[in-house]
Design brief:
Helix 1 packs parallel to helix 2 and helix 12 runs antiparallel to helix 13. By secondary structure, this protein is of the alpha+beta class. The strands form 6 sheets. Strands 1, 2, 3, 4, 16, 17, 18, 19 and 24 form a 9-stranded mixed beta sheet that branches. The protein has 3 domains: about 160 residues, 3-Layer(aba) Sandwich (D-Maltodextrin-Binding Protein, domain 2), CATH 3.40.190.10; about 170 residues, D-Maltodextrin-Binding Protein, domain 2; about 100 residues, Sandwich (Immunoglobulin-like), CATH 2.60.40. The chain is globular. It is built from 13 helices and 24 strands. Strand 22 and strand 23 form a beta hairpin. Helices cover about 30% and strands about 30% of the residues. It starts with a helix and ends with a helix.
């Protein structure tokens, strides 16, 4: 049984129990609606909250309708829903005293189905620019040379160099060690006079460890034990000089692609997933994706109109996108990771600004979102230039929508959002394919919850 189906059964059972008299007399039915991106996680948290007598002292019954961000925003503003869910902000028609509450993050995975690929079941690597061109209709076949070139096994150079602000650092493999050398121009020596030079190492997806940290000098030579598949980050003070790796092994594997037409599958409904995906494409490749972002794919599409030759198809909700790709060879889409995993759809590894290919996961999404900022309204701005080596670059943050207005319903929504942030997401998000919020974003999200029902 699919995740949403399981949660729906649990919520229905709790609802029937309340109707039968098990629930308290003052229990309320709190129906929300909106983003499908959020729906799998929302159903988990609603089901758990509905049976948690310690957090849900009023025995409220929370439900959530996966109708898309645009419909959710409209429905919340006109009173159809008692709270909303969205990955995009209102452009107009927002309710008075609106409160955005970041609830959870997650990767927007590039899901695909391609029969006849060799080796069978291989994971496709897609440069960020290739993703932009595919979804703009500029690359139309899986055998395109740009896709093939990104999927050849290549030996990584034995010596790599990065230079920034007059600081030059190189790494090279020597026997069982990695040798670091660094030099500074006279201007750099002056600029970084009181700064520390730091070198850290991290396995992709793993924690970072410090290899070197000392006051800057005009020259530096440092040796460390070699470890395969390791990324090294070098900084002078707060200035990132470079992210380097040295590796004997082959980089990926050589994949042979069939000459199959690419079929792009996009959302038919207004979507926060679409909004975040187009925003990523626009911010990362503005020469290809020239228009500002939108909840509607056709509006943000860089051409005059979507192709009508069958190469572009639409489906409703993240569930619709994932199901279409599962059932149709040659298709490719963008969807929240859990929906692809439910249906056995493969996700591509996408290159990030550091030039590394990274698969979508709660961990790689969290690394990316760690560089994001949150403003006073609760809206999160992603840093599309972050160079963390193990960061997956296409992500979204889901917001719960409420208001400051005093009401019994808002008191219930406030309680549920607090439970979602503090109890449910930390325990369940990663296992469900989402990214729990941490650090400054979580702190400010909690401050947003406090505004609900505050009057």
């Amino acid at each position: 049984m699919k995740l949403r189906q399981k949660a729906a059964v649990a919520i229905a059972a709790i609802s029937l129990a309340s109707v039968a008299g098990v629930g308290q007399a003052n229990a309320a039915s709190i129906g929300g609606g909106g983003a499908s991106f959020l729906a799998n996680m929302m159903d988990i948290c609603a089901a758990q909250y509905n049976r948690n007598t310690q957090s849900n002292t009023a025995a409220d019954v929370v439900t959530y309708a996966s109708v898309g961000s645009s419909t959710g925003k409209t429905g919340f503003a006109n009173g159809t829903y008692k709270f909303g869910g969205s990955e995009s902000a209102y452009s107009s028609g927002a309710p008075t005293n609106l409160v955005y509450v970041p609830l959870v993050g997650g990767a927007i995975a590039i899901g695909y189905r391609l029969d006849g690929i060799s080796p069978a079941g291989a994971t496709v690597r897609l440069p960020s620019e290739v993703v932009a061109k595919i979804f703009a209709g500029q690359i139309t076949r899986w055998s395109d040379p740009l896709i093939s070139a990104a999927n050849k096994a290549t030996s990584v150079a034995k010596k790599l160099t990065a230079t920034k602000d007059g600081v030059k650092v190189s790494i090279a493999k020597k026997a069982a060690n990695v040798q670091f050398t660094m030099s500074m121009t006279p201007a750099a020596v002056t600029k970084f006079k009181n700064a520390k030079v730091t070198i850290s190492a991290a396995k992709l997806g793993g924690a970072s460890t410090s290899l070197y940290s000392a006051k800057s000098a005009a020259k530096l030579s440092k040796s460390a034990s070699y470890a395969a598949n390791t990324v090294y980050t070098v900084k002078a003070g707060k200035t990132l000089i470079g992210v380097l790796t040295t590796e004997d092994a082959k980089d990926g594997e050589t994949i042979t692609f069939p000459d199959t037409a690419i079929r792009v599958v996009h959302r038919s409904d207004g979507s926060g997933t679409t909004n975040n995906f187009i925003n990523y494409l626009n911010k990362s490749h503005p020469a290809i994706w020239t228009k500002v972002t939108s909840d509607t794919y056709a509006t943000g599409f860089p051409g005059t109109a979507l192709p009508t030759d069958g190469s572009f198809q639409s489906a409703k909700g993240n569930e619709g996108l994932a199901s279409y790709v599962r059932d149709n060879n040659g298709s490719i889409t963008y969807a929240e990771l859990s929906y692809l995993e439910e249906r056995g759809v493969k996700a591509a590894a996408v290159s990030n600004p550091a030039g590394k290919y990274v698969l979508p996961s709660p961990t790689s999404s969290a690394v990316w979102l760690d560089a994001a900022a949150i403003d006073a309204t609760g809206l999160v701005a992603q840093n599309f230039a972050t160079t963390a080596a193990d960061a997956y670059p296409i992500n979204a943050v889901s917001y719960g929508l409420s208001t400051t207005a005093k009401s019994a319903d808002n008191a219930s929504v406030k309680s549920f959002f607090a439970y979602f942030l503090d109890v449910c997401a930390p325990k369940n998000a990663a296992g469900a394919g989402y990214t729990p919020l941490t650090g400054e974003i979580l702190k400010k999200a909690s401050a947003q919850v406090a505004k609900i029902n505050a009057g």
